[in-house]
Each structure stands twice: as C-alpha cells, then as structure tokens.
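lol so apparently i was supposed to do this last week
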Amino acid sequence: MSKKVIDLLNEARSRELTAISQYMAQHYELEDSDFGKLASKFKEIAIAEMKHAERLAERILFLKGEPTSKPDAVPKKGQSIPEMLKTNMALESQAVKMYNDASVVCAAEKDQISKELFESLLAEEEDHLNYFDNIKDHVDKLGAAYLATLTG
Ligand SMILES: [Fe+2]
Ligand SMILES: [Fe+2]
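anyway here it is w/ fe (ii) ion bound
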C-alpha cells in the first residue's frame, strides 16, 4: 500500500484535529458570552469533524499505517465572532483544497477507497464553508441586529 496515501490521510487527520479543537474552543467561548445558538451549531460541526478524524484513522489503520494524534495548528482564542468566522472559513477552504488534491493523488495511486473517502469529506467541508460564509455575510450586512438572533 502507498505510503503517499497514508501520509495524505494523516495530513488530513491533523487538519481535522485542528478544526475539532478550534470549533470546540469557540463553542465554549460563545456559550460563555451567551451566543448559545451559534455555540451549538459550532459544536455540531466540531462533532462532524470528529467523525472525519475517525474515518481517516480507520482507513490509515486498514492500510497498516499509524494514525497521528497531532493537530497541524494551535487553536486561536479570544476572537470576535467575525474573526472566528474568518478563521473557520480559512480552515474549511484549506481542507477543501487539500482533499481535492488528495483525491487526485489517490486516483493516481489506484486507491479508489481512499479517493472516495476524500471526496465524501470534501462534500461536507464545502457545506461547512458555505455555512460559515453565510453567517459571515449576515453579520457583515446586518451587524448587531443579526448577532442578537444568535443569543440564548
Ligand atoms: Fe472535516
Ligand atoms: Fe469542516
């Protein structure tokens, strides 16, 4: 089995671990500042990323590799809501690019299952990106009035 593919799966897993800790950190901060509705959505996305990290680990183990437990970045703390959204959009769009590229390499390595895994994650990351982008757009256009709807 291809070392190249295992490395890509582990790079993806590191990215997922970063997203998990970033979104959970934001979830706690948002809960703490009473933005409960936004907090629970961020938690939901963090849990989706946990499932991604797990699916990647299962594939790595199947290929006889060792799943990494290292995130690829340190989560940012103390950001404003617009800053959080920018951080998350960057994480998601980097993941989209990473998984698109990885699926091409998997095809070249003739590993159809890993390719399909990347494509399936990719579809969900696009949804996450779209969600953060929409919220950012509402915050930019409507400001405080919109933020008020995310409390509770
Ligand atoms: Fe993910
Ligand atoms: Fe995501």
